[in-house]
């Protein structure tokens, strides 16, 4: 489409954005990353190390921050642009104008094995080799990709997407508008064993896992169910790939948990907590609302709301950075100590 | 059931336990976690931070430690209780009285694809879309959930459970009474490549993986097979989710390995080793019997039996804690050093 | 086969190797690891802690380094041997003489579901319950094990192997001679969300993942696709199990990435980079050619080529080791500081 058309659509989403185009209104045929964008594409710059690419990119149009120097640089190169307070958000909206994600066709593949007691909603899409066991309830417009397995008593809310090869264990409840990515396992048995003289005695995991509306679980992640009660992920929380959520955890609303993080049994996050990759959280601890945890941190005890923590064990980030800087100067400190000792005839 | 009936059953399992009930023998209909237990449920308190919940819980009955203050507090609130030396063990046994885990019905689903050379034991349960390839041997009362794949030459012992979407590679031997959770991959090729001028040359992985009786492997974990010889996990050892066991490892009896831990090729654990989450163990090292390793530790060299270690690299836990405390005081030490230098005209 | 025959075959692969056999030319029937090798097997010693096993092994033949003491020790025990500059390489080649890896038979299993628009090459092997969706292109001699799912528009190059239960998402391109292990997920949606007042807005992931020729991806690993552009792994790079590659990453040629490492969105590795297990790499950083990263390191910023780094955050390994040694001496330093203070009447 012409840039002028595109700009009109995006400005209808963000009334405070500004658009400017060169004399010739460029045809925009695709969206591209700034490092490799060819002509006739729209790309975006959100400041930082990518800002300098405005002087070299072949993109015909850019989404920019409200930064007059960047805007001028784009104009000087005859690049059309739209400036906005939130370039990444507008870029996400622009992608949605160009890209229609793949959706499997409605219908039930004849190779799917669906128990007669299961209840399916309107307009289901159920792929090849899917297995839906007794007493499952599947909402309207749910899309279940091939080779997914639902154990008995699972419920899946409207419009939820279950990607290929994921597994939902008995009694799991998935809300509406969720996405479960390939290989994820939801509601499996928590790691509950009691040490005895003879070895480990299994504690049966009689609870269930509940995902509220709008939750997304990454590829090959696991969300266990507890011995009693629930593991619960509140609405709009997003988990990346290979994340482990232990039995009986409670994860608040609109959290984001990056890849390979593990949260041990019985711990809880407040709302809008942001966790980096490969973080470990011990069992039975609470992380407060709005807290941010840096990648590879290890949390052993409760963290107050609105903290920013890092390290293993995790401490406030400002303190961590100061101490880590001194840690790198240990050889200097050691040298100074020796000089002082010598000076004093030590 | 009535509390008095429940207490009788539990006391038959633990003769040294004490039971006390209020005037009215309460009806117990379910088991619940202490934080959210409603009336007519049995819950448990194992001391620690949960002890104070005895003053607020709505549970009608509790399993308690042998702690007279806790017992008195429960009695004061007319809560029935059973006191035992091991509340968590008795609670596990109580769950088993109320909860019957899901077991798939016996039979072979018509969509399963089973090679004619495979041998099946008595009373098999083989789910939809299972694939069992040439020369596999499946014991009695084995339950194979949907979409499981057995490569050729796999053997599975009596009563073992294979959960949906797990994969057992060629020549893998699984003992009796094992549980392989969803998405786990057993006996896959070890990561064996030899660097050459042209790149990486693949070392064929001709060995096999052996799990002895009573082993449990968590969701999406991987236990590789080696180039030659065996990867072996001895009896009664339990692995949590997303654990990686490299080619040629030997894991002792009755170990417990928490989620996201990785053990590199050729390493070994003794018996009853307990490993926290996200631990890394380098290749070709040995961890002795009864050793405990804290979460996120990294082990580079042999660890003697009965050690307690933590840190990356791991050192004895008492030493780690002392040093970590001083690490946090580096700014103080730096300040003192400067004062001393100043004092000495440095 | 007789050792003399075996030696002849191996010497044809490595002309600079030396062979010596005892008076009796032993029959070699299998390959075995040095720790447990029985009679009539070939094993290998590559120096290090295994060297002393030359005095106890029951192996009838050994591949040895060019080390005259080891060779003499083997001869003294009447063990046949071949000495080479690269024992591990020659051992890999010896395994290939004895071991024929399992390959599924050619043919298309009747339970496979293949869209009529998909194009299959010559001599395909497509297992039970495989799903190949619209517009996929599968090359010659490709082997697809059971329960694999290809989303629409996937292409798979000649001779590539897809192991059971792996998933290739829409538009993924896999080169020739690749191996995708069980449970791996390629081309799934990157973790792209924009924070808004209402929660997380999903950024559609319109890009694709490309694996070039000779790439190997371990079990249950995930290689996401980006919002725009590509995630690309260059030729001959090998990933171990449970590795996470974020959206938009570029991984160079002939890299090796050990288990449970995670690389966040938009980062890149040069060629022949070697990454240990459980390493974390932040988003938008570059690691230069030939760099080596120790296990459990965390990389926050660009690393120059040919570096050797370790630590969280990662620094040059020599510096890390010096500082880590001083870190362990913090109690000593603290004591010295106190003595100096006392001495000065502090």
Task: Outline the structure in words.
The structure is a homotrimer of 346-residue chains. By secondary structure, the first copy, chain A, is an alpha/beta fold. Chain A folds into two domains: 3-98, Udp-n-acetylmuramoylalanyl-d-glutamate--2,6- Diaminopimelate Ligase, Chain: A, domain 1; 107-320, UDP N-Acetylglucosamine Acyltransferase, domain 1, CATH 2.160.10. Helices cover 17% and strands 29% of the residues of chain A. In chain A, strands 7-10-13-16-19-24-27-30-33-36 form a ten-stranded parallel sheet, with no helix packed on it. In chain A, strands 8-11-14-17-22-25-28 form a seven-stranded parallel sheet, with no helix packed on it. In chain A, strand 37 (308-310) and strand 38 form a beta hairpin. Chain A is flat and about 75 Å long. The interface between B and C is large, with 68 and 67 residues.
Mind telling me the CATH superfamily name of the largest domain in chain A? Hexapeptide repeat proteins
- End-to-end C-alpha gap of chain A: 80 Å
Quick one: which chains have the greatest interface? A-C, 67 and 68 residues
Radius of gyration of chain A: 26 Å
By secondary-structure content and strand pairing, the structural class of chain A works out as alpha/beta
Under CATH, the topology of the largest domain in chain A can be stated as UDP N-Acetylglucosamine Acyltransferase, domain 1
The percent range for helix content of chain A is 10-25%
Structural domain count of chain A? 2
The multimeric state of the shown protein is: homotrimer
Under CATH at level 1, the class of the largest domain in chain A stands as Mainly Beta
Which regions of chain A contain 5 or more consecutive residues with pLDDT less than 50? none
